[in-house]
Known about the structure:
Two copies of one chain form a homodimer. Chain A is built from ten helices and ten strands. By secondary structure, chain A is an alpha/beta fold. Chain A is globular and about 55 Å long. The interface of A and B includes residues 11, 159, 166 and 167 of A. β5 (about 105-110) of chain A pairs antiparallel with β5 (about 105-110) of chain B, so a sheet runs across the interface.
Amino acid sequence: MQICRTVKEIRAFVQQVRSRGGSVGLVPTMGYFHQGHLALMRRARESCDAVVVSIFVNPLQFGPQEDFARYPRDFARDAAMAEEAGVAAVFAPSAEEMYPSGFATHVEVGGLTDCLCGLSRPGHFRGVATVVAKLFNIVRPDRAFFGQKDAQQLLVVRRLAADLNMDLEIVVVPTVREADGLAMSSRNVYLEPEQRRAAVVLYQSLREAEEMVRGGERDAGRVRRKIEEMIAAVPEARIDYVEIRSLPALEPVQELDAPALLALAVRFGTTRLIDNTVLNGSAADL
Amino acid sequence: MQICRTVKEIRAFVQQVRSRGGSVGLVPTMGYFHQGHLALMRRARESCDAVVVSIFVNPLQFGPQEDFARYPRDFARDAAMAEEAGVAAVFAPSAEEMYPSGFATHVEVGGLTDCLCGLSRPGHFRGVATVVAKLFNIVRPDRAFFGQKDAQQLLVVRRLAADLNMDLEIVVVPTVREADGLAMSSRNVYLEPEQRRAAVVLYQSLREAEEMVRGGERDAGRVRRKIEEMIAAVPEARIDYVEIRSLPALEPVQELDAPALLALAVRFGTTRLIDNTVLNGSAADL
């Protein structure tokens, strides 16, 4: 497995793959791998000759009060896990390599980003869209792989790739969960033991919502209130948002007559966790 | 010469060139060709195996009060001129092809765009940056060719191409002028005869500024005031801006001790013309 620190190095690597007629898959990450990342890498391996994983904790997508500085990092462990997963190259640039002095360009996706995490994290999706546009242009993959857990990010990336005529396929991979249902996240390491136990309510509430809809419930407001009640009953949890939105435009939904995204963000102490499910559908509807 | 109306068609054309190992040059235009456009095409022919010219009057870069609707168009004449100039393919998409329903993404270049034409035309460079990013991704040229006349646009395009890691070379081609010195522009057709005669003051004032600097003048303010006086003495002319700015950052300049951009925008009736020169340097410093 090759480790590339510069744009020039990863381009040379990709060029080599291309010159042999090989296809390239990209898994963009912020590192500190868990089973969710490994599922992305495995899925990429299945459909691409060479898998590139980028590891970059992107300062542009963190707000000034957010956890950029303390975001967990362990490059040696990540590299070993990537190699084990059959990754061909890791692209791990410095912030200076990605945003050299004089950098002044941003990619902005409208509409989709003024709700859910876009409201709680102003500037977040602008940072995501900008770094993803850069990574796509640097690696020029045939396919890029994103997890369902960051559903809004996935929709933003799909939108920008289509709007800017980026010639690649965006593949969504279902959320990987712990044994008790908690969605895998690099931020789970922040949780105190009692917060960790309490956090299972997120999964339980999503399952409850699915049950309600499977049982015939069509009123999005009733589903949302039920979820809010379940989470509010857990003393460690503080709701940021619980929302049901249309796909793929993320518009507010009253009637549950089509696939819709139930998304939530909840704080446990200072740790903010997100999770989601597709009501009346599956990850394939994202 | 091939005429492509869709992204799919022009991509298939470029793919053909690539499969033969050929290089591709892109000349992005809004059509209604004059000698300035032809100079871009000829320059592209010199260094690329196949030249693609895009013709697209981009609604995104016109303000609501601007001349989008009346901007001159003559596709048949443009196609004939492009063929004559040795162009291999014209890409002339509809607005619907470039901005289909749901389009929501914009590319924004900071810093460079909050002065000169960026002040007079809010949103203009956002529209330019967005369409150029799209065209670069659609055609993926080895080189793209831009005229010196739109110097700020050139600097914005260079910046976005570097910032978004677009793997191509941006080539600047010097401004082509009429016999009396007026810079070629598709908008020159708007001018009434007496406005057309008066407009030569733009060229004359740029030459005067070059003379002053060649003669040892180092005070940017004095050069600027001299130009303003010359233009103000012409009754048909109404100054939008006359400014001297650093290269490539377009910061205000007091001392003329390095190459600097003298740029101006002047209205003749409802027609707004721009022109520029590089003091202490040449187009190569852009």
